[in-house]
Design brief:
CATH superfamily: Phosphoribosylformylglycinamidine synthase subunit PurS
Number of strands: 3
Structural class: alpha+beta
Radius of gyration: 16 Å
Strand order of the largest sheet: 2-1-3
CATH topology: Mth169, Chain: A
CATH class: Alpha Beta
Shape: elongated
Helix content: 25-40%
Oligomer: single chain
Order of helices and strands: EHEHE
Length: 83
């Protein structure tokens, strides 16, 4: 079966996000008010084949925890789409 994984990797809430702070300041400088917080992360898509959805979940969990996200500073979540 073919799958596409949509993965979001974000800094943990406890970790400072300098990019997010810079964007928040930039929005304020543009006159866009009311922005309380901005967090900058990564969106990754992976197209791959797996025998079934359970295997696909395990493949992506492994990829995220061992390569795509630094679990000390980041969290990840993903969705799978059959294609």
């Amino acid at each position: 079966m073919k799958f596409i994984a949509h993965i979001n990797v974000m800094p943990q809430q406890e970790i400072l996000d300098p990019q997010g702070k810079a964007v928040k300041l930039g929005l304020k400088n543009l006159g866009i008010g009311g922005v309380e917080d901005v967090r900058i992360g990564k969106h990754i898509t992976v197209a791959f084949e797996a025998a079934n959805e359970t295997e696909a979940n395990e493949v992506i969990k492994t990829a995220c925890s061992k390569l795509l996200a630094n679990l000390i500073m980041e969290t990840f979540e993903f969705t799978l789409e059959k294609v």
